[in-house]
Structure formats: C-alpha cells, structure tokens
Amino acid sequence: MPEERTALEGPAAQFNEEVLIRRIRDGERELFYELIRPYERRVFAAAFAILRNEADAEDTAQEAMLKAFKHIRQFRAESRFSTWLIQITVNEARMRRRKEHANIIEPIVDRQDEEGNYTPRDFADWREIPLETLERKEVRQKLAEALASLGEKYREVFVLRDMQQLSIEETAKALGISAASVKTRLLRARLMLRELLAPGLGGNWSSRLSLAKGVKPW
Amino acid sequence: MVVTCEEVWREVSNYLEGEVDPTLRAAMEEHFRGCKRCTAVLDGTRNVIQLYGDERMFEVPLGFSHRLHRRLEENIVPARRTFLGWMVAAAAAVLVAGGFEVARSSVFSHPELRTEHAESSSGVPPDLMVVVATDGKTFHIPGCPFIHDKARLRTIAAREAMQEGYAPCVRCMRKYLNA
Hints:
Shape of chain A: elongated
Number of domains of chain A: 2
Oligomer: heterodimer
Number of helices of chain A: 11
Strand order of the largest sheet of chain B: 3-1-2-4
Distance between the termini of chain B: 75 Å
C-alpha cells in the first residue's frame, strides 16, 4: 500500500513543481495558479473535514492558498509541496474552529479512551468494493456523513492519512502528535467507519442497487 | 505463533499499512483463513481506505474554483509584465468591455432577469449561502416560505446566484435590500 501512495506524485511532477516554485519566487507570480491547480479540491476537502461547513471550508481554503503564496519562500524542498499546503490548510482550519467554535462541546466519541481496545460489534460481510458506486451522489453523501460523525481527533488523522495520503510521520507532524498516536487513532477511525458503513454497503450491493433502483442500500 | 481475534483487531490497521513484522503477519493470515469475523473486519477496513482514498470523494461546491481564483487575483498582483503580457492584458480588457456590452444587451433581451431589485442585491453579502429553484427567478434564505418549486432547490453562494441572474427575494432578503 505505501508504494501505491508515493506513486501518486511522480518524480516528473515533483520536478515540475520545483521549477514552478523557483519561477514564482523569481517574480512570475501568476504561475502560482498553475502550481495549486491540482490541489484545489484536496485543500477544500481537508478544510471541510475539519470544519464540516462548506462556507467556512471554502473561506479557509482560500486563506490557506493565500498564505501559501505569501510564504512560498519558506517552503523547503525536502517535503512535498502538497504536504506543505495541506499542513497550512489544517492549521488555518484548526485556528478558525478554535475561534468560532470555542464553546461547542465535542461529540461523545471524542471522549472515548483512545488507548483502550476497540471491539467491533458488527461483522457484516463486505468483500466487494465497487468503486463505480462512488459515482452515486447518495453513496458519497453517506460516506461524508459517516466521516463527519467521527470525533475530531479521529477525523483529522483519517483525513490526512487516508484521504490526503500523507505518511504517518507527515500526519503526526501536521497535527503535532506522535506517530504512535496517529496509528492508534487511525485504527479507531478506520474501524469505526467500517462499522458505520459495512452493514449498509456490504454484501452483494452492486447487484442489489441495480435491481432496486432508487432504493438506498442502507 | 497464534493470535486471538482481539490481537487481530488491534493490528489490522498496521497490517494493511504493511507495518507488522513477518511473524505476526503470517500468524494473522493464518487466523484470517479460519475466522470469518476477522476476515469481515479486514475486508471492511480495506474497503474504507479504498473508498475514501478515491479522488471522487473530494467534492467542491459549485463555482469554488472560480471564486478561489478571483480571490487570488485580488491579492496576487503580477510583479512585472512582459510586452507580450501587456498585449494579452490589453486584449483581455477589450474582450471584457465587449462582454459587458453583450451582457447589457442580453439583460435587455431577457427582461425577466432584470427586476427592480437587481440593483439592490449589492447589499446582499456575496458569501451568504442561499437557495435557488432551478426554474425560479429569485434566491432565498433557506427555509423562506416564499420559495417556489421546493423539490428542485440547490444551495449556492449569493454571489453565484446573482451571476446566474437570480434576483433576491424581497421578503426574506429585505434587510439586505434596505441596507
């Protein structure tokens, strides 16, 4: 699995980014649009996963992009540009959340004992993974709802590692926690999501969907 | 080495990351062969990672990219322009001016988009999320009792609604119209 992830951004793409960044630093500011274009959706998704509000996420995504531009000289080539950009986004989103939601009580799941063992309660069979069903808006909606229902510390780790494809170490650095905590939270997040989704999405769902058109599979 | 179900659940995430040592991996694989429940946990966890890792999960609101670029344009002033750059900019200015003419003429040819409230909409916060009906002419605050065709609503930013020719509802948007 780790091999697949690193292949998402090949050496050619990285070289192209380095060239773009150098030229932007040298004054060709308009090239910044080209630099960020591949990451627009990912930046929004990262902000949305933390803030769970479209308008706030959009504003945060814009702020993060602007901040990235203003601090482009501080970017160090030892990390990927996408990772740096996502880190900025996460910081912006967290700051905004602290400012605007200071009095909101965290969901109950956040108070779960992180170190305690997680015991699955549902063992629905879910062998098939028909990715094409992601074309269905209600399936994406269901996935988004399940993710939104996680406590924030699980959601953040899951989003950075499994959606944004940051490494365990990058995720730890972005969130200011240890790699061990990332692994523990990641395990919980994945198992909780499985438990939320498997009963509805598991089994022979693709054929069921085609037979029962218009009927949600959960 | 024999592992229990509890140990498998504790390590299933690391197993999928390829971060368990060969002995434990072999023991877990042996366990999966004889345990349907743990196999269900493994399959489901793998599916979760695959589904959420798909690019299609990164949905953005309608007009997101356009608004982002406009915000950037407002803040990123090109440091210098080449002669060619100036020519392109001049050509763009001509096109924009032409566009305004076309827009103006199109407004006159579609009187239903030019309501008496169209100018007043400048008081509506552009980032306010509003709802519009696909075939409607006005945009509303969600829940406004004057929304027609409630079955075909979509939520967009007021800025987009205005760009698409919708006029503000004179009831639910009153406070902005009077501003």
